[in-house]
Q: What sequence folds into this?
């Protein structure tokens, strides 16, 4: 497959607002693609060369790419960018006509060369590589190359779009493909396996350390009494107000075999060999020679790599195999934990606010941040030991395997086990809830101890009960921002004055409006919201975003930003496309979620 063919596909997808038409275009392309081409196509469609859980970035600024284009065109492009909207469009319009082309696989390798260039003088070297690539391809290909390099491709295609397109191929089954993706967390490898093995692909998706799985999600109920009706004999755990985290530990020597069969495997192994130790790692305890043999990766709820953000967790995780062996007598060369990372002050044994925990999500000055905001990981599940997949075991059995971790906070361990309780009455469950809220936590989670760990699912065998449920509205709501309105009065200086928000209609794969948000936001916060929104703005409304004409915003957004809101109540609404509206909504915070992980329309109805 030639890269020019892919660029032609991208240009067609970009101007196609209807999801089914976009899906048909992709299906036609996947039909003739080889497994390798299908994998590469899937990554490039979402503007990447690897899945989200692999921390490979191009690290190129708009300024650098503009300098490249100005060098080739021999003139300043500031005005051109303002008129056309992005540097890729400027290059396509002004570049000399060229019919030069290359194979998709060769193009992919050249993108890897750019991403892999490190060290002194790397920015100049990258500029030279980009110039060579632009000169070796057509202006249309260059348009999308530049957008990929500065992470601004935004074709409107998502993982779900790709899965649906694959599902229309012979032997395609969308439910099986979703399960395959939930277990690989890798849209490119999902396409590769399906194109290689057809409807038997799911059996080839083995769970391994180093590859996160989609998190099992939690449902909600409005009262403890309702929870006991669903789970008569639940276990009860504290609900932490932190960041979901998967901790993966494995032998450093196993890194290549863990990613066997993935099109990026060899490139990634070479890239990894060039990386320096995470900043701040030396601030923490010295590791034994045995512990230092292990590699650690940390992943967020969205499957993003957070390893470099928490050096103290990396150090603690390298010691887990020895802790496991001490408890059970068996060597554990692979361990995967699920849990929550939260700011915690060991000196006074106090949980830190969510906002402080969020300051740890950074790429720079990590060492100082780790000193100022220490964290703990509270692990509530174990998913893998060696090559044994524990997700199909009942929760009670997984908890037993997790017992190698300490629960005692006095021991000042960085990774600890979440406390477990087995309340025998509503009053006992309520008492535990109040105790944890009194300690500054969000609430509690009730679980069926026979439940399996099914990645990416949300059902009623795990139920949360939060302190906000004691109010008129049963819980806060996570909404997706789909547009904003330019400000008036004092807010005019920020260019933003209200947000349009939606919930996710899972049945129809659509985002439906539920509220406008304009209160609970300081001037300082408006500025940061504007920056976040502008990073995902788009010049057209996607087909699966349903907005009534009277609410059309000034600026459309891709459904990627999720925020938590409080409201007094939910009322029926003839205006909003969800059929519901939030009364007096108040902005609380951004959430670390994908748009499709926001509150669903069905959940809204239960509230």
A:
């Amino acid at each position: 497959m030639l890269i020019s063919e892919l660029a032609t596909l991208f240009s067609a997808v970009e101007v196609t607002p209807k999801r089914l038409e976009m899906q048909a275009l992709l299906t036609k392309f996947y039909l003739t693609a080889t497994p390798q081409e299908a994998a590469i196509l899937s990554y490039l469609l979402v503007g990447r060369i690897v899945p989200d859980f692999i921390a490979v970035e191009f690290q190129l600024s708009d300024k650098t790419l503009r300098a490249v284009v100005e060098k080739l065109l021999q003139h300043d492009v500031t005005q051109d960018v303002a008129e056309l909207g992005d540097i890729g469009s400027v290059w396509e319009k002004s570049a000399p006509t060229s019919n030069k082309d290359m194979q998709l696989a060769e193009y992919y390798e050249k993108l890897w060369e750019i991403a892999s260039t490190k060290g002194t003088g790397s920015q100049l070297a990258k500029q030279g590589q980009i110039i060579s690539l632009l000169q070796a391809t057509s202006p249309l290909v260059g348009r999308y190359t530049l957008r990929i390099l500065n992470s601004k491709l935004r074709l409107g295609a998502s993982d779900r779009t790709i899965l649906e397109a694959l599902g229309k191929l012979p032997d395609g089954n969308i439910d099986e493909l979703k399960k395959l993706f939930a277990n690989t967390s890798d849209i490119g490898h999902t396409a590769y396996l399906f194109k290689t093995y057809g409807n038997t692909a799911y059996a080839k998706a083995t769970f391994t350390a180093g590859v996160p799985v989609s998190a099992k999600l939690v449902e909600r109920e409005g009262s403890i009494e309702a929870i006991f009706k669903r789970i008569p004999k639940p276990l009860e755990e504290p609900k932490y107000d932190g960041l979901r985290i998967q901790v993966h530990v494995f032998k450093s020597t196993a890194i290549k075999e863990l990613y066997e069969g993935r099109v990026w495997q060899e490139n990634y192994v070479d890239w990894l060999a060039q990386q320096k130790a995470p900043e701040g790692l030396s601030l923490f305890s010295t590791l034994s020679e045995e512990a230092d043999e292990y590699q650690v990766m940390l992943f967020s709820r969205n499957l993003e790599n957070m390893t470099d953000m928490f050096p103290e967790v990396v150090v603690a995780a390298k010691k887990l195999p020895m802790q496991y062996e001490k408890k059970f007598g068996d060597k554990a060369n692979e361990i995967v934990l699920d849990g929550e990372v939260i700011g915690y002050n060991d000196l006074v044994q106090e949980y830190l606010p969510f906002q402080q925990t969020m300051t740890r999500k950074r790429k720079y000055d990590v060492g100082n941040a780790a000193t100022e905001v220490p964290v703990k990981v509270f692990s509530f599940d174990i998913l893998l030991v060696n090559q044994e997949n524990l997700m199909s075991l009942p929760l009670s059995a997984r908890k037993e395997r997790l017992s190698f971790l300490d629960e005692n906070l006095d021991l000042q361990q960085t990774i600890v086990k979440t406390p477990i309780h087995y309340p025998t009455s509503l009053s006992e469950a309520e008492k535990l809830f109040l105790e944890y809220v009194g300690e500054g936590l969000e609430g509690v989670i009730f679980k069926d101890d026979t439940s399996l760990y099914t990645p990416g699912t949300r059902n009623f065998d795990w139920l949360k009960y939060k302190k906000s449920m004691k109010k008129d509205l049963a819980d806060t709501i996570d909404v997706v921002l789909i547009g904003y309105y330019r400000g008036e009065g004092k807010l005019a200086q920020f260019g933003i004055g209200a947000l349009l928000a939606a919930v996710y209609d899972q049945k129809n794969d659509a985002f439906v409006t539920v509220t406008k948000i304009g209160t609970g936001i300081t001037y300082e916060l408006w500025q940061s919201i504007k920056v976040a929104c502008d990073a995902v703005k788009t010049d057209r409304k996607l087909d699966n975003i349903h907005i009534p004409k009277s609410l059309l915003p000034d600026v459309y957004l891709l459904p990627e930003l999720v925020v938590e809101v409080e409201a007094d109540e939910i009322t029926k609404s003839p205006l909003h496309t969800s059929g519901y509206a939030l009364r007096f909504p108040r902005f609380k915070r951004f959430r670390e979620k994908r748009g499709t992980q926001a509150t669903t329309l069905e959940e809204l109805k239960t509230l």
User: Anything to note?
Assistant: The longest strand covers residues 334-345. Residues 243-418 form a domain with the D-amino Acid Aminotransferase; Chain A, domain 1 fold (CATH 3.30.470.30). The chain has a mean pLDDT of 90. The chain has 23 helices and 20 strands.
